[in-house]
Specification:
By secondary structure, the protein is an alpha/beta fold. The chain is 34% helix and 23% strand. The chain contains ten helices and nine strands.
Length: 256
Amino acid sequence: MTAELLLSHLLKKPRVALYSETISLTARMVSAFRRMVSRRARRVPLQYLTGQVDFAGLSFKVGPGCFIPRPETELLVEEAIAILRKKSKPQKILDIGTGCGAVCLALVQKVPLTSAVATEVSPAALKLARQNRKAFRLTDRIRFYLTDLFPPVSERYDLIVSNPPYVPTSEIDRLSPEVQQEPHLALDGGPDGLRVIRRILTSAAEYLKPDGWVLLELGTGQSFILRHLSFPGLELAGFRQDLSGVERVAIYRKTD
């Protein structure tokens, strides 16, 4: 299957064409394919080789230095869409740690009358996010900032979303070789995986409108810890489970 995906990418044809069409490869194509297979054998992520990832029904450009969006993060997008669609007026989103921009771009693409501000600390990831924004023709509806967590502008938002680093530091070395090649800055969540999540929740209420919401992706078991923590101006409204039963998305609402 991996070889099919690589060959399909190289030929710029759908996978079914590999079986339904007669295809001739030039010597240059054969050489390029062998290089891709060799890199994949060294456990370079498939998405880095093809330069793209499918997420929330859309295709995004990705590459080295950028965290690769995962299917479980689609839960975050689904929950955000459900909240945003409760209102018919224009709404503003803040996406913290946007990576390649997949979450905020998916939300703005799928929900009319929305705009977004997105932050990212990695220049490499933000470069890809800007390229994806251009590809989706959403330059007028999304602003990006190269900064840590919250943007350097005085604005309030209807919704804050984030897929932050949440892997406990001690578990980083046990991740698959493919994941090990993704930026550790996008993975390492500190001793219990909640270092960045605590920082976001501690300050989030200051950036929310009176009826605002916060949605955060979590790792396994972290919902148990959050149930016993409180944050200024926020109330825990619940969690969204993924298909394996993990409470994957934490849902908070502003209380004042």
